[in-house]
Design brief:
Blueprint: H1 5-14, H2 19-26, H3 30-37, H4 44-62
Helix pairs in contact: 2-3
Length: 82
């Protein structure tokens, strides 16, 4: 899984969460949070903890679907219409 770095950083800033704090809350190593913040992929175990912590709705918004070569499973054709 890869996340949209700017959105994750904005979320953390808005909620006054440091990288260390996010690591504690999600229960993942700080090194994995740093990977996410650099736009690098994390493994399935880290991804699952991230999804559990943030919930499906927020995670769907944070995942960089294009970067992982997948289509957002929650998106519909109407989302792209004006």
């Amino acid at each position: 899984m890869k996340v949209k770095r700017k959105l994750l950083r904005a979320f953390m800033k808005q909620n006054r969460i440091t990288a260390e704090g996010l690591a504690r809350r999600v229960e993942i190593p700080l090194s994995e949070v740093k990977k996410l913040l650099k736009g690098k992929a994390v493994d399935e175990a880290v991804s699952l903890k991230f999804i559990v912590y943030f919930g499906a709705g927020v995670t769907e918004w944070l995942i960089d679907w294009e970067a992982i070569g997948r289509q957002d499973p929650f998106a519909c054709e109407a989302d792209g219409e004006n």
